[in-house]
Every structure is written in C-alpha cells, then in structure tokens.
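Lab notebook page, bench 4
Experiment: in silico fold of construct C2
Operator: M.H.
Input chain length: 162 residues
Purpose: comparison with the prior construct
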Amino acid sequence: MFNRVATPDQRLADPIRSSAPAAAPVQRPSPPPFAQSPAQQPMRAIDTPTSVLGQDITISGQQLVLKTKGSLLIAGQIQGDVHGESVTVGETGSVSGTITARTITVQGEVRGALKGSAVILNATSRVDGDIVKQTLAIAEGAQFDGSVRRAKDVAEVTPDLG
C-alpha cells in the first residue's frame, strides 16, 4: 500500500505576480523651518518670498525702517520699524518699534504699535503697545497691554513698501 504524505501544491503557495510596474511612492514636501499650522498661516500668494532673520541677529539703529514686499519671519531682535506684506514675530523674536503689514502674527515680544489688516496674537505672544486693525484674533494665554481700535480706512494699515 501506498503511504502518501500530503504536500501543498506549490502553484497555490506562490503569490500572484503582476506584470505591471510597481507605482512609485508618493513623496510629500517637508514643511519649511518655523512652519505654522495651516490654521495659523496667513493667506498669501505661493510665489511670495519669505525672509528669515534668525535668532543670532540683532538689528538696531536710529529711525531704522525694514521693508519687505514679501513675508518676513523675525526670530532675532529688531529695534526699529518694520513694513511688509506679512510679518511674523517668532517665539524667540523681539521687536521694539511699529510693525505695519497686511498680516501680522505675533508669537514672541513686541514693544510698539501693530498696524495691520489682520493681526493675530498667539498664546506665547507678549505685546506692549496699541493695535490698529481691521480684524484681530487673540489666543488664550496671549499677553497684551495697550488699546485696540478699528482702522478708519485701509490706508491706515497699509504698509509702505516703496
């Protein structure tokens, strides 16, 4: 008599192979340094350049005015006025002077006036100065000492980018 041991059929054990090429994995671009969450990001054109003043930079001078037609992220210290399309004072940043921009986001410290179409004070912000705005958002935990008023006209909160 035959003593037969059952062995699995090898044709069934091999996985089905496709002759189609494998799809390449989708790569997502990494976020830029100092990235904000999408809810915190101001709306701006994709081609707008962003300038960064790092933590190791201190800029000071009499009647100093910084101007940018793009976005500016301040992580260092500035003693002077700032004009820009979009200005963000990072958590390590400090500005002593007036900031005038379409969008102003404060995460660090400002001692001076804020003049902007949209002003956003994050939870880590410390502002000692007046705010002239069209819209204002203040997160819980933000420190603010000054007055707030709505801009009488758009020219009052329009930065001098010339």
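Observations: Residues 28-45 have pLDDT under 50 and may be disordered. The first strand starts at residue 50 and ends at 53.
Next step: discuss at group meeting.
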